[in-house]
Amino acid sequence: xxxKLEIDLATPEAPPKASVEAAVKLLESGYLFRYGEMGGExxxxxxxxxxxxxxxxxxxxxxxxxxxxxxxxxxKAAGVERGDKVLLNAFTLAPVPGALEHLGAEAVLVxxxxxxVVDIDDLRIKAKASGxxxxxxxxxxxxxxxxxxxxxxxxxxxxxxxxxxxxxMGATWNGKQTGRFGVAGAFSSQSxxxxxxxxxxxxxxxxxDLAARAILMSGSYMLYAQHSAAPSEAVFDRWKGTCANxxxxxxxxxAAILRPQLQLLNERNARWRKIHDRVASRxxxxxxxxxxxxxxxxxxxxxxxxxxxxxxxNSQIESIIxxxxxxxxxxxxxxxxxxxxxxxxxxxxxxxPAQDLPRSEAILSTLCDIRLPLGLTxxxxxxxxxxxxxxxxxxxx
Length: 397
Ligand SMILES: Cc1ncc(COP(=O)(O)O)c(C=O)c1O
Prior knowledge:
Helix content: 25-40%
Distance between the termini: 19 Å
Structural class: alpha/beta
Bound molecules: pyridoxal-5'-phosphate
Order of helices and strands: HHEHEHEHEHEEEEEHHHHEEEHEHEH
Number of domains: 2
CATH class of the largest domain: Alpha Beta
């Protein structure tokens, strides 16, 4: 008798009651836009920025309308201009190269290694060869690179690093939070992240010029004084004539929904980690499944699980996935010829100049991925792993 999982793995974590109450209160007040010409009422977005800056230990924080916007604005405010080269690890999600395309920047893709993180040797080679002055470090699916080695390369070549922390809210490398290694960190509160506001993004930085530029560019209509996790008026004076308004503000409603979730971060991450590690330990028992290594320095915050189906052809993997999907476990596949849902690879980003990434392509050709809802019980986590293993065994001769 085959196992079948009876829960929808795409179930998002509902915001807590305090978020619902804060949202209703704000809706009733009508102050949904974060800026009021008379100073704003309560200014949920400014309060959120103060609280998020405190959580990350940064001087400044800017709320925006999505994680992709946070990446775009952080890079632009850091100085990236049309035609500039930006290094980017090849394993990432489409909005990340999308932000570079939006900037008119030239993506220089860097190979990844078996841990699904940037290949340090290739980073050094491409940093030198390209002369790029920016690195967009994407901690895709929560896998954190050796950030000490990455930071060293950035220092050596005078590269400004912007971190994409959409999947690493609360994750650390050697005790230091992701988002705090470079000049800015970009976060997302889209529904499948640690915090759920539907859409939303946050930038953290200690750089006063970057912060002022990001606030102006996010679309603050010269009402930037309503930001409190922000630099002084004198810093805005340096930039206010030269920064275009890109209308990427965070709405007060999103901020009101997010604020009560901040205090849940550690508890959510601990629960997610338990679910991940339980599924991982069962999947590891199958000889054809390999999971990426997680070094001790990496304190990871998984919301999904990745594994390689080794020694199988593309079509075998696709038929295994069809079978596991029929049994309630929709496995995603990075090796597919066309992008699906939240999975894609560099050959699918045809707007970028073609780049030869043989090692990344080989690694991603057997990579599978499953979303792990926070509500998954131990029994459901076990069933999920059994379904994958049974689908795999079914396909074997
Ligand atoms: C690695 C990564 N970076 C950036 C983003 C962009 O976040 P958003 O969907 O909030 O624009 C995502 C979205 O899932 C992502 O997975």
